[in-house]
Amino acid sequence: MAQKLKLEMVTPAAQVLIEEVDEIAAPGSLGQFGVLPGHTPLLTTLQVGEFSYRKGSDVYYLAVNWGYVEVAEDRVLVLVETAETQDHIDLARAKAALGRAEARLRELTPADKEYHNMQAALQRAMVRIQVAGRGGRG
Known about the structure:
The chain is α+β, with helices and mostly antiparallel strands. Helix content is 25%, strand content 45%. Strands 1, 2, 3, 4, 5, 6, 7 and 8 form an 8-stranded mixed sheet that branches.
């Protein structure tokens, strides 16, 4: 059994990272899940949320937006729509987006077409604020 996982994260725009890591935690569509070396093969979907990985005693966080995770032979491939590391999140912009989404949601009902889009925008903003607020490595 390998002692490390090879983590690869890719968006449509770029390769976000390639790292040898000790474990990952991801926001699965059915709930948060973790992967350690020797994990059973897996293919699952991701939702908007906080993705983390640990290298030694350091934990790194990213805000991810929808995607897929494939685990096979101590390799974790993450394909996501967007992924932002802590140091690439503009906290003021994320807070402004949160305010806009909250204000717009107060004007809408669940029957409105835009309602679910605004809920998703709210969730993305909240995750970005959470990840940015980590204040460096965990």
